[in-house]
Specification:
The protein is an all-beta fold. 2% of the residues lie in helices and 66% in strands. It has a nine-stranded antiparallel beta sheet, with no helix packed on it. A two-stranded antiparallel ribbon has the order 1-2. The relative contact order is 0.13.
Length: 163
């Protein structure tokens, strides 16, 4: 992750949770996550989350007492979807809304809410990896310290693997 021209480093996300079945094709999930940033530990934070999981969709809420270490509480609600197109290929989508509470040196300039979107196409690579090409966009609000010069829309190519 790059925060500015002089601070680059890894972002480690560790999480644990539990999924419980509610019925055919419907589950709930709850857990905790920690986010740690190499070389910029002041942005480290923890959060709790809860999800409702269906066939091809997920509704999740996250809450943090100190989001990105800026002294603000946060709630983030997201809806994710995946629709199979053909064997090994799927359309993906995401919409999220972040709301922060409390004061921060960044909140006055950018507001307390931020919307983000993602639309993509993913392809399976073997049994445990995936490649995705997606358009992502975001609004101006929220507590992010480095977002003022950041691009708000972009195309992202990513590779994910499970191990």
């Amino acid at each position: 992750m790059r925060f500015d021209g002089q601070r680059r480093g890894a972002w480690l996300q560790a999480y644990g949770g539990r999924v419980v079945g509610l019925g055919p094709g419907l589950d709930i999930e709850a857990g905790l996550a920690t986010h740690t940033f190499e070389n910029v530990s002041r942005y480290d934070y923890q959060e709790a989350y809860a999800s409702l999981l269906g066939e091809g969709w997920q509704l999740r809420i996250h809450g943090s007492p100190d989001y990105y270490g800026v002294g603000q509480r946060s709630l983030y609600v997201e809806l994710n979807g995946r629709q199979a197109l053909s064997p090994g290929w799927a359309a993906t989508g995401h919409v999220g809304l972040l709301r922060v509470f409390g004061t921060s040196p960044y909140a006055a300039q950018s507001g307390s809410m931020r919307l983000d979107l993602r639309l993509g196409l993913s392809g399976q690579l073997g049994s445990s990896s995936e490649v995705q090409l997606a358009w992502v966009g975001t609004g101006r609000g929220g507590p992010y310290t480095w977002a003022y010069q950041a691009r708000r829309r972009s195309v992202v190519l990513s590779v994910t693997t499970a191990f």
